[in-house]
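re: ur question from earlier - yeah i can do the single chain one, its not a big deal. heres the input i used so u can compare w yours
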Amino acid sequence: MSTTSAVSPSPAGAIASGARVLPPFHLAFPVRDLGEARAFYGELLQCPEGRSAPDWVDFDFFGHQIVAHLAPEQVAGLAAHRQANVVDGDHVPVPHFGAVLPMALWETLAERLRAAGIAFIIEPHVRFKGQVGEQATMFFLDPSGNALELKSFHDLGSLFAK
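and the output i got, formated as tokens:
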């Protein structure tokens, strides 16, 4: 088992984070337009593109595989069916997906998203301040209406702390 302090790919294809080695996850999600997805995930978020076909495209989402599938009919109903749960006073969109990032990268992305004029569902801020699980978080939508959360912990060991 690898023990590194930074998140980095391991030779076995897993992600090393602290004393844990995590295999990359895979998530397939609907988009209305692959060009928009490439611009958002590939250019704005700077997630390298992997394989693709006329109806889908892979991205390296901070070490994990996400696949944007062309499904405009499914995307049309995303916002209409979205719910929210209150978490530390914020209305967190359900469903959503995202990544836990090193703080410097989280801060860089927050500034890049602001500069790009992204409308945040939940502005970048720290929640659970002074409590177990204190974390920096932000929520926003991709062009197809998929909700994303990017978060960071000063102490990644508190990710699952109670």
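Residues 1-15 have pLDDT under 50 and may be disordered. not sure if urs matches, ping me
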